[in-house]
Amino acid sequence: MDEIIWATPLYEFLRQCSLTSLDRTVLDCGAGSHGDRPPPLLLFYQQGYATYGIEINDEPLLHAKKFCADNGIPLNIFRGDMRRIPFADRTFSFVYSYNAIFFMTKTDVAVAMHEIKRVLRPKGLCFVNFLSVDDPDRRPFRKDNSASRLLGSRRFSRFRDGEADIYFRGFDILLKEKRIIEKLYEGRRLKQAYIDYIARRRR
Amino acid sequence: MDEIIWATPLYEFLRQCSLTSLDRTVLDCGAGSHGDRPPPLLLFYQQGYATYGIEINDEPLLHAKKFCADNGIPLNIFRGDMRRIPFADRTFSFVYSYNAIFFMTKTDVAVAMHEIKRVLRPKGLCFVNFLSVDDPDRRPFRKDNSASRLLGSRRFSRFRDGEADIYFRGFDILLKEKRIIEKLYEGRRLKQAYIDYIARRRR
Asked: Within 10 Å of residue B173's Cβ, how many Cβ atoms?
């Protein structure tokens, strides 16, 4: 009985990864965790993948390392910057970045997407989600340190419906899913809007 | 290592169910399966839930029963109609209907939603997804028997953004998620659009 991960769109990514015949190696860009939540890499670890993760911010990095130490689970999460991914070209079959890339400016997003492609093997799959312009961007974590460190006083980077397609040159987009969410969160009504991509590197 | 289920929005429903202290009993309305895919109830079975499912159509019912027999997994799926759910009031902590309710007319959807509420316990959770008016409704399974049996020559029932809210009187809506999907499916580009609800019965 595996633990259910809160980052549910990654289940579809995992399912598509597991349909391929590629080596089970995966990298998470922005692999830290918050509070009691386990790092999403746990999902892949539970399925027998060799997992690696990079995280630029202190607090989520500490939470993730503590989870690994407390549970004896080697997710291999360490400090790193997705604008300069510390791995060689074509290292991973699978790379993802969940709820992370939009903490950066659009200039940095372009750099990070180039890096994600670089470390992916040919025919490898990536998952990246973007914040939509339809997201009101008024969430509780709006003002936390991780956002302000990378964006300064700016807001999150938000994308129009087709705007992020440009990052997937040299990929086939297998799935693009816009999710417009209304939810009860700690007694308050929140709206969120994301655009998720699953894409396969052509060669 | 559990099998990953294709019906990924159910992972969020399962996660929310597992956060409650209610008995682990779940009913799937439209519980059949297609081709090699396991019935989605497997997801709950893997987590230790007592599972029950009803299915009105022959072929998905046979597929589901074959899966259970071949794998020795008692999901308890049998023939039944969600317009007359064959269980007593307040039997289940959790009830869901995934990609199923919109095969019926809107009149029947109202009846089925009333039935789902009836068999739910107070504070029990349900998941139901609806087809959005933004769905072009031109999928390969458009003309299959299960659709034509319930809808005759009509198209699927499709819903405007807030239209299905009315079915959740007496519930708190915990999550409402509109998903607008573009995907590659057997070499063709498909568009789909759904509106998913997770709701809690008040009393």
From this structure: 16
Query: Helix H segments across chain B?
Result: 9-18, 41-46, 58-71, 106-119, 145-151
pLDDT in tens, B91-111: 999 999 999 999 999 999 999
SS3 A154: coil
Q: What is the mean pLDDT of residues A100-121?
A: 97
Q: How far is A41 from chain B (nearest CA, A)?
A: 14
Q: What are residue B16's phi and psi, to 5 degrees?
A: -70, -35
H-helix or E-strand spanning residue B18: helix B9-18
Q: How far apart are CA A28 and CA A121, in angstroms?
A: 15
B47 neighbourhood in chain A, CB within 8 Å: 1, 4
Q: What residue of B is the nearest CA neighbor of A182?
A: B176
Sort out which chain A residues have CB atoms less than 8 A from B184's CB and list them: 172-175
Query: Do the beta carbons of residue B101 and residue B130 sit within 8 Å?
Result: yes
Chain B positions touching A11 (Cβ under 8 A) are: 4-5, 8, 11
**Closest to A49 in 3D by CA, of A23, A72, A16, A10:** A23
Written as one letter, the residue type at B116 is I
In degrees and rounded to multiples of 5, residue B29 shows phi and psi of -95, 105
For an interface test with A, which of B17, B24, B182 has the most A Cβ atoms less than 10 Å from its Cβ? Answer: B182
Range A9-201 has CATH code 3.40.50.300: no
Which tokens is B26 given? 């779940």
For chain B, the domains span 9-201
Residue pair B181/A197 in contact (Cβ under 8 Å)? The answer is no
For A55-106, what is each residue's pLDDT tens digit? 999 999 999 999 999 999 999 999 999 999 999 999 999 999 999 999 999 9
Tell me the pLDDT band of B150, cut-offs 50, 70 and 90: low
Among B136, B128, B137, smallest CA distance to B195 is for B128
Of A11, A175, A176, the CB nearest to B4: A11
Count other C-beta atoms under 10 Å from residue A116's C-beta.
26
* Statement: the pTM of the whole predicted model exceeds 0.90: yes
Q: Which of A45, A76, A173, A171 is nearest to A120 (CA)?
A: A171
Question: H or E element: which one contains A60?
Answer: helix A58-71
Strand partners, A124: none
CA dist list (Å): A132 to A9, A108, A168, A177: 16, 17, 17, 11
